[in-house]
Amino acid sequence: MSENIRKPHIVVINHQAANIHSVGKALERSGAEVEITDSAESLMAADGAVLPGVGAMDAAMRALEELKLIEPIREYAGSGRPMLSVCLGMQLLFPESDEGERSGLGLVDGHVARFDVDEPSEDGSRLKVPHMGWNAITFTEPDQDRHPVFRGIPDGSYFYFVHSFHCMPNDSQDVVATTAYGGPVCAAVARGELVATQFHPEKSADMGLKIYENFVRHVAETVASRVA
Amino acid sequence: MLAHRIIPCLDIDSGRVVKGVSFVDLRDAGDPAELARFYNEAGADELVFLDITASSDDRDTMVDVVRRVSSEVFIPLTVGGGLRSVEDIRRMLEAGADKVSLNTAAINRPELIREASAEFGAQCIVLAIDAKRLAPPEDVELDGDPDLAAESPWRVFTHGGRNPTDLDAVKWARYGVEMGAGEILITSMDTDGQKDGYDLELLRAISDSVSVPVIASGGAGNLDHMYDALHEGHSDAVLAASIFHFGEYTVSEAKRYLAGRGLPVRPPTD
User: What is the bridge-based pairing of β-strands A110-114 and B163-168?
Assistant: First the structure.
């Protein structure tokens, strides 16, 4: 019984390239027991995990390699437990990026591309990069068909984006939502229990907190169903 | 479509808001966390905290402020003032700031922009520029980098507009972006505090010559001014202080007004 009502234990993977503080606080207020760590053992014992990230792909992959976290993250993802990846964290899921030399984690098929700054946008002005600020997202599926992390969020909700590269999944089924910046841009991804957002939910006020609440509740439900 | 951002700016001295919000019944109008909550609920898209603390002993206070605010307010937070090294910047980012703004320290040592950008990413490095019209440029002796010498009517100033530098504001903005700044915060010292509108020519000159977002600052007296800064000034975001702090307009009113004139904004919260 006590197994079912304990707070879900969620690990925030600390690879020194993210605003971890806000991620941890958003999870805490959503009812999680939060551990910010670079320990593979902690990750393997977690009910849920968050892979945050800002900055450059190469630097982040180098940090994950030095921390000996690349294989553990792949193993964790393979275990079918939920993982939420944010911003650069989402880009790290892909096998390769225009940004750098290093391979990504390769957990979602596709490519991470640079914004085409030379291409004028609809009104003739050039795109500013980074894509920085609040933008509206459009879901690819109706509410009830989405991964639970993305339910209850109205189409057209605004989220805070900061990125210079964008993800292009090979399988359109992996795309949960898009936003418009010089054309459609992948804003969120779900593949099994891997969910990811290009935007920062921890910086997106109430709608962003809703995503963390959904994630923590979903992790709690997966724990309960495993125990059952 | 990407929304134009409306950004209230708070001046902070030794951990307390100065020129604080004066129109609503806040328990403590000098408490940065309370004001951050207030502006978040009002629909602000982002917050800028400018540390105007004179003594460097009080820098730790700012780190605590940032940690407290980012623990309970979940919108982007930019912190500026007195950051001189990569380590200063790291402390602020670790405390929960999303971006830092660099001003005098970047003028004194432009390499700081490159170092910080390489370490933390361009997206969290804002180059803040205080500019003032100064003509004719040949009146001022040039001893700095000739490539950055004044050519446009706007010169970079330090110390709140008191001290002119050799730097041309437009060239300095472009150079800052080359060095790795991910955003430019441009304040006109001529229009700042006048409530008579932003310097639209300056905004357009900067915005059209850099590839990164530009935040307009200095001169907002009414909502028309904000519209002009975004539409005619080609800015991506507007920063304002007194217009919000003294309750002349709410953030929601500003957004409704801009939306009514066809500009994309994140819809107001009320």
Answer: unpaired
Q: What was the ipTM of the complex prediction?
A: 0.91
Which structural domains are found in chain B, ordered by start? 5-260 (3.20.20.70)
A190-214 confidence digits (pLDDT tens): 999 999 999 999 999 999 999 999 9
What is the share, in percent, of chain A residues with pLDDT greater than 70?
Answer: 93
Residue A193 is predicted with a pLDDT of 97
B60 burial (CB, 10 Å; 0-12 / 13-18 / 19+) is exposed
Task: For residue B130, indicate whether it is catalytic.
Answer: yes
Task: For an interface test with B, give the residue of A115, A203, A213 to mutate (most B CBs within 10 A).
Answer: A203
CATH label of the domain that carries residue A65:
3.40.50.880
Number of structural domains found in chain A: 1
Bridge-based pairing state of the strands B47-51 and B5-13: parallel
Spans of chain B, pLDDT less than 50: 137, 142
Interval A29-39 mean pLDDT: 96
- From the list A26, A55, A133, which residue is nearest B74 (CB)? A26
pLDDT category at A125 given cuts 50, 70, 90 is low
Q: What are residue B17's DSSP bridge partners?
A: B12
Largest CA distance in chain A: 61
- Residue B182: other Cβ atoms inside 10 A: 25
Contact A158 B93 (CB under 8 A): no
Question: How many H-runs (helices) and E-runs (strands) does chain B carry?
Answer: 10, 11
